[in-house]
Amino acid sequence: MNVIGIKYFWQPMALLFIGLKLTGYIDWSWWLVLLPVYWKIAFAFGLVALAVPYGRNGVVALNKFLDCSST
């Protein structure tokens, strides 16, 4: 699944979970309801953690990898 497909999958899911929690249909804790939002933050930190040790070359290589994987 490409990056755009992932984006459009998790946003509606997060909104659905928030709506179900606010209306009382689910009795989950808020950290579980907001999990679709948190994974994007964790993914961004993970990419930075991989790129920082390699400096500028790591960022360039990471950009090339992400461009190749989205096709």
UniProtKB/TrEMBL annotation:
- Going by the entry's taxonomy, the superkingdom of the source organism is recorded as Bacteria
Keywords linked to the UniProt accession: Membrane, Transmembrane, Transmembrane helix
- Give TM segment ranges: 37-55
The entry's protein name is Transmembrane Fragile-X-F protein
- Which organism does this sequence originate in? Rhizobium bangladeshense
Lineage of the organism: Bacteria, Pseudomonadati, Pseudomonadota, Alphaproteobacteria, Hyphomicrobiales
